[in-house]
Amino acid sequence: MFVEQGAFQSLEIPKVISLIAKRCRCELGAIAAMSTVPAADLAELRSRQDLFSSVESFREKKGELPWNNGITSVEPFFEEAAETGLLTGLELLRVKSMLALAERLKERLIEEREEYPIFSLLTRDIRDFSKDLELLFVIDDDGRLYDSASEKLADVRGRLRVLRETIRKKGHALLNEPSIASMLQERVFALRNGRHAFLVRQDAMNSFPGIVVDRSGSGSSVYMEPHSLIRLNNDYSSDKSVELHEEQKILRALTEKMLTRRRAINDAERVLGKIDLFYALSEIQKADRWRLPQLTPKKMFDFRGARHPLIGEHAVPIEIKCGEKFRILVVTGPNTGGKTVALKTAGVCITLGWLGFPIPAEEGSTLGDIGEVFADIGDEQSIEQSLSTFSAHVRHVTEVLGQITDRSVVLLDELGAGTDPDEGAALGIALLDWLREKKALVLATTHHNPIKRFALVTDSIETASVEFDTSTLSPTYRILIGIPGRSNALLIAGKLGMPHEVIKRAEEAISGREISMEDLIGELHEKRAALEKENREVETSRKKLEALKSDYEAKIKEIEEKCAALIASADKKAVSIVRNAEDSARALIKNMTAAEAESAARRELEKKRSHFQKIEKSAVTREEKKLSQSSVAVTNDKLSVGDTVRIIGTKGVATVIEVRGKKARVQAGAAEVEVPLTKLCLAAAEKPKQLPDVCIKVSRPVGVPSSIMVRMMTVDEAIPMVEQYLDQAYRAGYDSVAVIHGRGEGILRREVQELCKRIPYVAEHNLGGPGEGGYGVTIVKFKR
Prior knowledge:
single chain, 784 residues, alpha/beta, seven-stranded mixed beta sheet, five-stranded antiparallel beta sheet, flat
């Protein structure tokens, strides 16, 4: 998107950007804010929003990214070094700090790349600086070279340390000599002009055994070098020169290396600046309630609760939109009512939005595909004084007309002002009509009634007004779309004490049509106020009803859950009672001695068995229906190949490999099985890794036995263990396994067999044959 330079300045975008820059932690973020340009197209804008949202999500979940508030831009250093060939130790220390931070940041971003793939947009611009940092490790935290920077530097610094110590000892010995001490201004042994000297009184200068090297600031004393230290000072000065030369040599070598990496370092600096800018935008989001706008390919904008950031906390939120139902919005109303602020607010939101920044508006604001922003705004309001003549306005508008497209946004303040009212209105109408034909998005303000009437009767043009409280003679700054505004000039004049006769003559001077127009607008405002009052009452009632509805739905859900729990408990008890009764009857029959009585009892038991089975089947049906409520068949979740699902009634997960009608083929471990959709639900767990397409023959699975012993256990103890065991055995590759439950009364045996019926990957289950355990064992065979 392109923002015309005149619009950029009149919308005060630099001032708005400076507000953002002040929230940055260092100058890199401020530079990034000032240098950001609007996105080229909607795809790039979406990418910018996604990147900012991802960084914001990371900060909320995992804390701050690596940062150092002390870093600064190093590009100015490189500009100077390109001419001088030398970066100082302190400048190289700045480079070292920035590269170290870039390395830490890149490492952290790469760690999170799986969860945030878009971080690659940042890491690709941070090169590998490990070798550069190794070179820069010769610089300490004060910007000085370590002795280890070179052998020669270490050698000369070693000699300097010895010399300093020798000079210090001799100097202190001289201080203790009475003949020398009496001539000193102070007992000071200082380094002046590279020479170790004493501060000697002016009157003792000719008596002191030495030579003058400097004068004190006051001029009342001199610094003199004793004759006995001249040779040592000469050695010291010579070695200092060698040290300085070696340091310069090392620094120039490091500078040359850094200059070859200048482009990579600049790229890293831009990434760090972007991270700091994101931090500033995040802080503004929290403190000032800015939000990222929703994007749409339509050529439109709709800002809700928009506020001009330069007005601060006193800004009144406005609703302003254009492009969906109309292409041109003409805003009218009295002076100081907020018309120009509304134009600027819309322009600021459009520009910030296309920079990829949050905008000062509420959630739900929408920004469309806009190609250019043009503005002709000249006013004397508090945001920015700007005086211009009619000719200047016309010249500016004429310059931009040739660049207008159907993707342009044009902001026109005080349309038709600054000249004869009739001619100005006619020119304004012609300009709006021409822009309408070009299908541009236009926000315009005006006082001219002819323009108001044109807007009321012309397609694709809508009117709006800034609300004005006639009782207090003050604007409310709200934008009322659909109703043109009154100028209220005569009303304001009357309220401010203008004589009634003057007001009356002014009203008589206005044509009858104009009076009718003002009266009509006034009537519309009254009706709007009444409708708004009713709307507020309706909204209040609606919120109360929604609250009641939510409360009742929650209570109904709670009752249904309790009811289901009671029914499930009753079913379980009923099935237990039935099975116990059946077992008891079978035991009595077994103990009967009379053949005729036993036969009669068996016939009676068979009659009752069908009733028992109905009770049991009813309980099972209700349980299956309850379990199936979470299945994809009920929730209408669409299954796709690759989805991770859970087979209801088991703890295992599987991967969908095919969906056919009301069934799906899934892979669980090494096996494939076809399962009804009523038995599947989406799993939140991560997808299992795809197994290689090979056939594996399992002779004896490791860690999973071929049978499980649950004899002497209660049903509640045994069934969970059997379920988990069957799942493990199936995954391990067994064709069949044995569940040893014992004979007993048969209760545990039936529960095991009921469990087998519910598991989709169980092909069949039978009691053990001769040599397999008979009634005390159930043999379970799996589908393959």
